[in-house]
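Usage

Read records sequentially. Each one opens with the input sequence:
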Amino acid sequence: MNNKPSLELLFSQLGLANSPAAIELYVRTHQLPANVSLHDAPFWNKAQRSLLISHLVQDDDWAIWVDELNQQLHLDAYRLQMA
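and closes with the structure output:
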């Protein structure tokens, strides 16, 4: 099995469905306002929040994918700012 960090594996680590369709649905239905940080999102449980913070603090290979998730979950807020 390939354990190279990816968005799919990050979703798996978070205990979420990680097929492309499941990720797309999750992103579309969990958009965050611009003023809410990824790790402060109300839908994470304590373990998920800790995992996200841990990867960012360590600035490891997963941090890129946490940042990608952050960007995707703020797409609507970004679009509103650009409008």
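Summary fields computed downstream for this record:
- The two ends are 43 Å apart (CA to CA).
- Residues 46-83 form one domain.
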